[in-house]
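Recap from last week: sequence in, structure out.
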Amino acid sequence: QAQLVESGGGLVQPGGSLRLSCAASGINLGINRVTWVRQAPGKELEWVSDMDSSGGNIWYADVVKGRFTMSRDNAKNTVYLQMNSLEPEDSGVYYCQLPGGTLRGQGTRVTVSS
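Predicted structure tokens:
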């Protein structure tokens, strides 16, 4: 059974950093497009970043461009989201998912607050 498990969230002060992980089982992330999305309290799901199946193309939402970096470790079958210069507006639950949300993890909560 395919599964995605996010981790790495937590409480961080504005300007701080976190690295989120998305570990996969039952599916090879190295041949799949993977997306990070987030959902702030009371708001809709928001696209954050995309990596294509080759890993050679990565796209970012304008609001995170230059601060967030998506990467992949094929040996660990894990995708990462390095988040720097965090702002309170980055708070929310972060999910990794396959295209169209056909498979999504349980999410990891990020809170940016002083």
